Amino acid sequence: MSFREHLRMLGRVQMLPVLESGEETLIGGQAVMEGVMMRSPHSYCIAVRKPDGTVVTESKQLEKVSERYPIFKYPVLRGLGTLGQAMKLGFTALQFSANIAAEALAPASTIAMTAMAPGAMGAGTEPKAKSGPISNWMMGLQLAFSLAFFIFAYKLVPLWLTTKITEGSPALEGRIPFNLIDGVIRIAIFLSFLYLMSRMEDIRRVFEYHGAEHRVVFNFESGKTVNVENAQSFVTFHPRCGTSFLITVMIISMAIYTVLPFDSFAGKFASRIALLPVIAGLSYEVIRFAARRQGTLLALLTAPGLWLQRITTKTPSDEQTEIAIVALNGAMELEKSQGGPLVIA
What we know:
With 345 residues, this protein is an alpha+beta fold.
């Protein structure tokens, strides 16, 4: 991969929390490069359209975290387990789609992959792409850079700027105004990053697939027959979206940081990193509650996330919605073969 391609991949990895939805008992998914990954409680399917119009898929069984480790059945902890698995799966789906894109550029004689026609809607064999041009260590390096960028951009920079702004001003150095300013700066950085990413043509394509994924999930949850026509009648804004989760994390973190007994820069910075799992777990519970109880006071916390999805989801074409349906059908077929229960919120 060239340096520019590495930078673009870094941007896509940064988008993983925005694009994925994590709930182990529900249908969810994630947009990837020219495709969609759909996940049911015990399986997942990735569907990607190649430049020649054919569709390749990969379906696998998926063990629930709470079934393997019962401790993750409890509130807050279940959020950590589910979100961790969702991120790992999203990483796998992104690598799969990136490999398909890279292989499409290689000579046809080097690609030994059977693909189904886009109109088959799930029929045919499912090609495998266990190995490809983008190796695991390259993706691991991207993930490490992404984590470092997250800590730098959303923890270190807001804290440093807030410290400089409030220096010498007793009225602003109190914990409430300090963390309010810190939170506003963090959200501003997040919004700016989202806007800049949305200006990239390939990321905009991913946001269109993101909209397709949401519409198909809504279609499935409605009980109506899942097809392109029905799916296209739904909105692209879904309460369980990763965008809603991230903005909820930022809002809740403002309240939690206010009660922390740390006044030094080092103490504040260390506590922000150490409490990431706790804040993520609490935010998961809020999103989970809001998705099932629309109209409640607590559900108002997720409203900004729905507004932000005007940036992170775009109106999909029929062909993009079809890909999301292929992924859903693949996940559901494997789910049925395992006899797993499916709970709809």
